[in-house]
Amino acid sequence: MSKEQDDTPQPNEQELQALLQQSAATDTRAFDPDQSLRRVLSRAKQQTATRDLFSFFMSWIWLLFAGFGASMYSAGQRRHPPVKRRPGPRKNQATSADQ
Fold it and tell me: Is the pTM for the entire model greater than 0.85?
């Protein structure tokens, strides 16, 4: 086990210095909660606007379908009017001869 530990390569001082300089050179941004909140709110507004616009167009499409359906129904009713039935004798009426 000690042999395995001895075989691991040790980082050299120059490599460590290069890594430290590289990490120090990179720009680390601090977390800004106000900016994050503004970004989330703007995305939410955009998503809500997109949904509203989509639902508006879908409602117009359903309105057109309903209009076409109503037109087809009324055209069918005009072509084949309902049969009017003559009123028959009422069951509870007594005839004048029975009295």
Answer: no
